[in-house]
Amino acid sequence: MQYRRFGNSGLNVSRIGLGCYGMSGAYGAADEAESIATIHRAIELGVNLLDTSASYGQGHNHRLIGRAVRDRRDKVFIHSKTGTIRGPGGTSIAEGSGTPERLRATCEESLRNLGIDTLDVFCMSRVDPSVPIEESVGGMARLVEAGKTRFIGLSECAAATLRRAAKVHPLTSLQYEYSLWSRDPEGAHLQACGDLDLALMAYAPLGYGLLTGRMSQADSEADTRKKFPRFQGDNFAANRRRVEAIEDIAASKRATAAQICLAWLLAKDERVFPIPGSKSRRHLDENLAAAEIALSPADIAALDAAFPPDAIAGTRYPADGMKRVNL
User: Fold this and answer.
1) Cβ-count burial 216-228 (b if 16+ within 10 Å, e if not)
2) Which of 17, 114, 205, 259 could anchor a disulfide with 274, C-beta 3.0 to 4.6 Å?
């Protein structure tokens, strides 16, 4: 396993982390025993970066991880997001999700569910448009002072917001969707991460599974992906055709499309830490093998050309979700 310094934390973490979202039913049923075995397998293979959220399974994900790491807490670096307030029918409500009071309550609940004393990184999932970022980060800073989290971070915020936030208290990371079909962080976000000495955690590095080449439109209709425009109608077919370029390079390397996607991210910037989701040991092993794949400049150029920014059919989220990102 390769390790890199995680932002300005002074700590080295595994270059490929483990996203735990799928272990709480986001993409269909998950087997708890296999999920725990997957976490154990990840630790055995040197993975120490785990990504989770208070909102995943409404606490289920934290309780699951807590069981898995009970006797090996010192071997993992837990990055936990806040989630947002849930309204009727599970709707996500931005306003009020970033108040210092709510952030403290979420942090304390996360610690109880995980069964630990301190988070490694406490990350606000989305910027609350009703609360100045300085106020939200000020509340998170008090959690650092209280010993409830070692470091703090933000997710899906604008680069300018990241810079404002860092003036209140040092941040250690930014989490953002980043993959061949979501290249938004390139430019201002990566520049801000460089200037502020932050890690960039790349979530959904496999395009929620579509970039692996193994998904059908029927698969996405069975879970949370059905609400994403990129998985709907003609958009799915157009995006699936682009994956052929990944598959061609994968065949030449005797690799899988998933491994090529992760290798591309690893080659982009040493500040980038992909966190592919895995709920089985088989997929975990496949993802981690990406660290051994060397892409040539010609390979990277071919992939960049096949997935130019803004050429993907459909937005990342529905209209209401897009209003919540890059604030």
Assistant:
1) ebebbeebebeeb
2) 205
- Three-state DSSP at 275 gives coil
**In the 8-state DSSP scheme, what is residue 179?**
B
Q: Which tens digit of pLDDT belongs to each residue from 151-200?
A: 999 999 999 999 999 999 999 999 999 999 999 999 999 999 999 999 99
Q: Which domains, and CATH codes, for the chain?
A: 3-322 (3.20.20.100)
Burial 57-92 (b: 16+ CB within 10 A, else e): bebebbbbbbebbeeeeeebbbbbbbbbbeeeeeeb
Instruction: Report yes or no: 16 and 24 within 8 Å, Cβ to Cβ.
Output: no
Q: Which of 3, 21, 27, 56 is catalytic?
A: 56
In angstroms, the CA 157 to CA 176 distance is 8
**Which residue do the tokens 């934290």 mark?**
62
Q: How far apart are the first and last CA of the chain?
A: 35
**Residue 14 pLDDT class (50, 70, 90 cuts):** very high
Chain centroid offset of residue 162 CA: 17
Position 126, amino acid: R
- In this prediction, residue 25 carries a pLDDT of 75
pLDDT at 62: 97
- pLDDT bin (cut points 50, 70, 90) of residue 277 is very high
Has 56 been annotated as catalytic? yes
* Residues 201 and 192: beta-carbon distance below 8 Å: no
